[in-house]
C-alpha cells in the first residue's frame, strides 16, 4: 500500500468510526478486553480514539490493552493523555505509573503512584505499586512502609503483596521474618512456585541447604526467575551412578554462576567416573576447556550430535554435589589463563606499576533490578583509593571513563585501564589481567568469581543480604578460599564496608598505606 492509499484508508477508517456511537464502540472494545482479546480491544479502542481523541474511557482501555500486549510506547501515550486530560483521577495515575514501570522509568512511576495516594490515601493499589517500584529502586525501607500500608488497606489477604513484602524484608536482612511471610503467603496459595522459589533464598541464607535445594527446583515455574528451562528428552540426573555414562550439564543464569558450576565438576566426575559435557556462556568456552581438559565444554545453545544418559541444570548439579561432596568447598584455583596473553598483560602491568602493588577494582553490577542493590558507587571508595603508592587497575565492565576521572580528582589515586582488553566480551583477557594482580577489591559481580576461581586474594563488598552463594554474615558460605567478605550493616549504606576494607588492606600490606 502506497502513502496515498494508506491515507485514504485511514480517512475511511476514521469516518467509519465516527459514524458509530462512541459508547457502543467502547462497550464492544471493553467486552473484547474482558474476554482476554487485548489485540482486538486495542484495535477497537484506536478506532474510537481516531474519531474522539479525548474519550477518557477509551484512552484508559487502550492504555491497559497496550500494557497487556507489552507495548510500552502506546501505553505511555494513551495513559499519558488520560492523566493530562483527567489529572485528578487517582486510578489514572496508578495506570500511568504502571506503564512507566513497564518502560523502566521507575522514578516517574513512583511520582504517579504518590500523586494517586495524594488524591486518595485509601487506594491500596497505589501503595502496593509504589512499594514494588521502590523495591526495584533498592529503596527497601520506603518500599516496606508502602507495602505494609497497602496490606493494611486491603479488604482481604493478598498473597502476591505478602510475597513482595517478604522479599523486601529479606533484602533488609530479617531472614526469620521473611520466612514467616513466605509461609503465610503459601497458606493462601500453597502451590505458588514463585513463592516457594523465593522462600529458598531464605533457607540458603540460614544455611539450610537441603531444604533450600528442594525449594529452589521450583525456580523454573517462577515468573521472576531469569533463565528458561530446557525441556530435554534425557532423564534428569538424580545422583545415579555415572560410571560408563554421559551426563549433560546445561547452562543457566549468568557468567558468575557458570564459574561456580564449573567448580562443582571435578569432584563429581572423579567420584563417579562419568563423562560430562558442560554448556556455558560462549565467552567462557576456551577458558573453561583449557582449565578442565577432562570435560567437554560447549557454548550454550550448541546442537548436540551425541546422546546422553542423563542431563541436569547446572545449579541443580551444584546443589546436589555440594550436599554430597562437602569436602570440595571452599574452592581453590580451578581456572587457567592463557599463558601467552598472561605474560603480555603482566608486562604492561609491571611497566605501569613501577614497583607498586597492583590492586584490581570493580564496583557495580549491570543487572537491571539487583544491580543498584549490589553496586558500591565509586564515590564511596575514597578510604580504599586514597593509597597513593598503589596502582589501581580497572576491572569494571561497561563505560567507566567519567567515573574514574571523578575518582582520580577526588582521591588522587592512580587508576590504570588496560587499553587492549574488552572487559565485557574478552574473558580470556580479563582472566589474565586479574591473574597478574596482587589482589582484587570488588562488589558482587563476575569479577569476584574470576578472582576466586584464580585463587587471587579478593576483598568482596556485599549488601546486607547478598546472593545466596555468598551467605550471610552470621552464616557465611565458604565458596572460594581466597575471597574475604565484608557485609553492610544496613541496606544501601556502604560507609562501614569501605572503611573495613581499607583497614584490611592496611593489615595485609603496610606498603600500600596512604
Describe the structure.
- The structure is a single chain.
- By secondary structure, the protein is α/β, with parallel strands linked by helices.
- About 55% of the residues lie in helices and about 10% in strands.
- The protein contains 23 helices and ten strands.
- It has helices spanning about 5-20, 20-35, 40-50, 55-70, 70-85, 90-105, 105-120, 125-135, 140-155, 160-170, 175-190, 195-205, 210-215, 255-270, 285-290, 315-325, 340-355, 370-375, 380-385, 400-410, 425-435, 445-455, 495-510; strands at about 245-250, 275-280, 295-300, 310-315, 360, 390-395, 415, 440-445, 460, 485.
- It has a six-stranded parallel β-sheet with strand order 7-6-5-8-9-10, with helices on both faces. It has a four-stranded parallel β-sheet with strand order 3-2-1-4.
- Helix 14 (about 255-270) packs across helix 16 (about 315-325).
- The longest helix has 18 residues, at about 255-270.
- The protein is globular and about 80 Å long.
- The model has no long low-confidence stretch (mean pLDDT about 90).
Amino acid at each position: 500500500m502506497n502513502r496515498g492509499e494508506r491515507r485514504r484508508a485511514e480517512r475511511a477508517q476514521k469516518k467509519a468510526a465516527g459514524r458509530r456511537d462512541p459508547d457502543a464502540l467502547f462497550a464492544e472494545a471493553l467486552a473484547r478486553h474482558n474476554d482476554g482479546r487485548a489485540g482486538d480491544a486495542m484495535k477497537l479502542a484506536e478506532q474510537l480514539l481516531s474519531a474522539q481523541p479525548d474519550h477518557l474511557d477509551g484512552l484508559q482501555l487502550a492504555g491497559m490493552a497496550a500494557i497487556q500486549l507489552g507495548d510500552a510506547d502506546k501505553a505511555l501515550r494513551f495513559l499519558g493523555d488520560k492523566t493530562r486530560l483527567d489529572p485528578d483521577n487517582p486510578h489514572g495515575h496508578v495506570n500511568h505509573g504502571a506503564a512507566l514501570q513497564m518502560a523502566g522509568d521507575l522514578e516517574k512511576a513512583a511520582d504517579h503512584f504518590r500523586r494517586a495516594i495524594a488524591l486518595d490515601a485509601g487506594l491500596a493499589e497505589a501503595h502496593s505499586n509504589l512499594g514494588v517500584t521502590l523495591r526495584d529502586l533498592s529503596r527497601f525501607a520506603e518500599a516496606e512502609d508502602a507495602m505494609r500500608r497497602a496490606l493494611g488497606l486491603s479488604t482481604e489477604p493478598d498473597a502476591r503483596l505478602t510475597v513482595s513484602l517478604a522479599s523486601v524484608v529479606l533484602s533488609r536482612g530479617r531472614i526469620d521474618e521473611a520466612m514467616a511471610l513466605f509461609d503465610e503467603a503459601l497458606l493462601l496459595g500453597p502451590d505458588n512456585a514463585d513463592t516457594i522459589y523465593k522462600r529458598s533464598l531464605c533457607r540458603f541464607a540460614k544455611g539450610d541447604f537441603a531444604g533450600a535445594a528442594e525449594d529452589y527446583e521450583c525456580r523454573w515455574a517462577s515468573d521472576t526467575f531469569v533463565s528458561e528451562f530446557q525441556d530435554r528428552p534425557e532423564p534428569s540426573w538424580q545422583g545415579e551412578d555415572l560410571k560408563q555414562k554421559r551426563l549433560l550439564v546445561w547452562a543457566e543464569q549468568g557468567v558468575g554462576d557458570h564459574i561456580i558450576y564449573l567448580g562443582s565438576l571435578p569432584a563429581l566426575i572423579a567420584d563417579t567416573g562419568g563423562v560430562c559435557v558442560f554448556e556455558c556462556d560462549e565467552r567462557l568456552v576456551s577458558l573453561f576447556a583449557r582449565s578442565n581438559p577432562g570435560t567437554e565444554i560447549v557454548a550454550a545453545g550448541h546442537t548436540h550430535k551425541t546422546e546422553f544418559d542423563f542431563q541436569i541444570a547446572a545449579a541443580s548439579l551444584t546443589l546436589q554435589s555440594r550436599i554430597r561432596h562437602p569436602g570440595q568447598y571452599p574452592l581453590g584455583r580451578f581456572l587457567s589463563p592463557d599463558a601467552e596473553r598472561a605474560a603480555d598483560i603482566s608486562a604492561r602491568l609491571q611497566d605501569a606499576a613501577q614497583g607498586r602493588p597492583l590492586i584490581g577494582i570493580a564496583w557495580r553490577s549491570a543487572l537491571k533490578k539487583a544491580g543498584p542493590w549490589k553496586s558500591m558507587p565509586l564515590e564511596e571508595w575514597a578510604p580504599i583509593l586514597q593509597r597513593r603508592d598503589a596502582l589501581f587497575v580497572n576491572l569494571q565492565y561497561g563505560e567507566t571513563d567519567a567515573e574514574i576521572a571523578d575518582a582520580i580528582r577526588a582521591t588522587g589515586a592512580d587508576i590504570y585501564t588496560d587499553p587492549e582488553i574488552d572487559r565485557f566480551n574478552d574473558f580470556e583477557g580479563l582472566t589474565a589481567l586479574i591473574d597478574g594482580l596482587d589482589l582484587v577489591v570488588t562488589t558482587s559481580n563476575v569479577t569476584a568469581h574470576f578472582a576466586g576461581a584464580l585463587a587471587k586474594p579478593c576483598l568482596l563488598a556485599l549488601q546486607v543480604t547478598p546472593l545466596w552463594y555468598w551467605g550471610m554474615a552470621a552464616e557465611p558460605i565458604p565458596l572460594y578460599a581466597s575471597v574475604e567478605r565484608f557485609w553492610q550493616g544496613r541496606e544501601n549504606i556502604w560507609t562501614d564496608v569501605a572503611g573495613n576494607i581499607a583497614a584490611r588492606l592496611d593489615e595485609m600490606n603496610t606498603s600500600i598505606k596512604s
